[in-house]
Amino acid sequence: MWDLLILNPMVNALLFFYRILGHQTVLAITALTLVVRLAVLPLTLKQQQAAQRMQALQPELEKLQKKYAKDREKLAQEQMKLYREAGINPLGGCLPLLIQLPLLYGLWQAIMRTLAVSPLELVRLSQNVYSFIPSLTSLIPLQSRFLWLDLGQPDPYYVLPILVVVTSWLSQKILTPPSTDPRSAAMNQQMMIMMPLMFGFISISYSSGLSIYFIVSNLVTILQYFLTPKPGTKPGAPKKEQDERRK
Amino acid sequence: MNRRFPLLWLVPIVLVILLLGGCASGVHATNWTTIVLHDGTLYAADLEQVRALDAETGQETWAFPAQPDLRQYGPFYTVTLLDDETLLVTSYERPGGGFFARSVGVLRALQRGSGQEVWPQPFAAAGEFVAPGAAGDSIFVIGNSDGNVYALRIADGMLAWTFPTRNRVWATPLVVSDTVYIASLDHHLYALDLHRGALRWQFKAGGAMADRPLMLNDVLYIGSFDHNLYALRPADGSEIWRFTGANWFWGTPAGDGGRLYAADVNGNVYALDAATGTEIWRSRVNGMVRLGPALSADGKRLLVASENGTLFGLDTADGFVLWQQAGQGQIGSMVIGGERVYITRINAPQRVQSFYVETGRPIWSYPPEGEK
Question: What is the pTM of this model?
Answer without folding.
Answer: 0.84
